[in-house]
TrEMBL record:
Keywords: Hydrolase. The keyword Hydrolase applies. The keyword Lipid biosynthesis does not apply. Pathway: Cofactor biosynthesis; 7,8-dihydroneopterin triphosphate biosynthesis; 7,8-dihydroneopterin triphosphate from GTP: step 1/1. The record marks C188 as: May be catalytically important. Belongs to the GTP cyclohydrolase IV family. This is GTP cyclohydrolase FolE2. Its EC number is 3.5.4.16. It catalyses: GTP + H2O = 7,8-dihydroneopterin 3'-triphosphate + formate + H(+). Converts GTP to 7,8-dihydroneopterin triphosphate. It is an enzyme of class 3 (hydrolase). GO terms for biological process: tetrahydrofolate biosynthetic process.
Length: 326
């Protein structure tokens, strides 16, 4: 029999002894139903264990658990991409908490299937039922590769598009939302005209300023599938000066010409995107957030345009523009 050791060895020892616990990992231990039933579960404890206000929580869950997901391309191919998943549910005011691992288990049950919004809806329904929640949400973030041709040299390269797909259920109503980042070059129309004025009036060489810019489009999707490729095409129609991947001298010259043909203020940019979004029947409410990261100024030029109630807002999240860094 192992001798019990004092709680505090040496002069601080008391009559009360601390048990000698096993220190080796029990690799052969197996959990049976009885033992499992005896495990404490504080998250599902009584309301008396709630800390702080007895208030309902709109979002509680897990963020950024990653796994490979198979996506279908518009042409019928398939690509497997690392995907970051955020899953949350609502929590009523009289409930202590949730078992967060159930969200992961529910999602993993569908992870081997090729992605579709139907699969996402099934995963959401599963963990909503498992956690006995009223509202639930899933968001999947990925970087989608597409081959892009150079402007004149005939080269091709991979352009990556940051995309998030969101399925949200609130009060029995489900919304499907695509968040899409589009990176482009913006040449200042004012600077372009001032540069031309210097050339014409004084024979002075001058160059207009332009900068890498980003628009984040958040759109409620409806009806037929809106493919990632469709959103790329929509953005290119709105603002033609997408940043380039593979560039030789003739491509660089072409890009300078393309920018001169499409000078754009940040106000112009969000309205150009809005015009294309309004014309697309597969898109309902939307928000466009644009940031032109000025080469003239030490600050950025920004703009937000929303359509519909889904993205209507009075207050701006302090990080809404900080997340748009090229």
């Amino acid at each position: 029999m192992t001798e019990a050791r004092p709680l505090f060895p040496g002069p601080l020892a008391t009559e009360r002894a601390y048990p000698a616990l096993k220190r080796d990992y029990p690799a052969d231990f197996r959990v049976d139903a009885s033992y499992k039933a005896s495990l404490p579960d504080l998250q599902n404890g009584p309301a008396s264990l709630i800390v702080g206000a007895r208030a309902a929580i709109q979002h509680v869950g897990i963020s950024n658990f990653r796994l490979p997901i198979r996506y279908q391309t518009k042409e019928g191919g398939e690509v497997t991409l690392e995907t970051s998943v955020t899953g949350t549910v609502s929590l009523e005011s009289d409930r202590k908490g949730i078992n967060m691992s159930r969200i992961m288990r529910s999602f993993y049950a569908h992870a081997e299937k090729r992605f579709s919004m139907g699969v996402l809806e099934a995963a959401l329904q599963d963990y909503k039922s498992d956690l006995d929640s009223i509202d639930a949400r899933i968001q999947m973030r990925l970087s989608y590769p597409m081959r892009v041709d150079s402007l004149r040299s005939g080269l091709t390269g991979w352009q990556y598009y940051d995309i998030a797909l969101e399925l949200a259920e609130r009060a029995g109503q489900r919304l499907k939302i695509m968040h899409f980042d589009y990176v482009y070059s913006s040449t200042c129309p004012c600077s372009l005209e001032l540069s031309e004025h210097a050339r014409q009036m004084r024979g002075q060489l001058a160059t207009p300023h332009s900068q890498r810019s980003i628009a984040r489009i958040s759109a409620v999707t409806q009806g037929e599938t809106l493919w990632f490729e469709d959103m790329v095409a929509l953005c290119r129609r709105a603002v033609a000066t997408e940043t380039q991947v593979m560039v030789k001298r003739e491509d660089e010259q072409a890009f300078a010409e393309l920018n001169a043909a499409n000078p754009i203020f940040v106000e112009d940019a969000v309205r150009a995107f809005a015009a294309e979004l309004l014309a697309e029947p597969r898109i309902g409410d939307f928000r466009v957030v644009a940031s032109h990261q000025e080469s003239l100024h030490s600050h950025d030029a920004v703009s937000v345009l929303t359509q519909g109630e889904t993205f209507a807002q009075v207050s701006l999240d302090p990080s809404i523009f900080a997340g748009l860094r090229a």
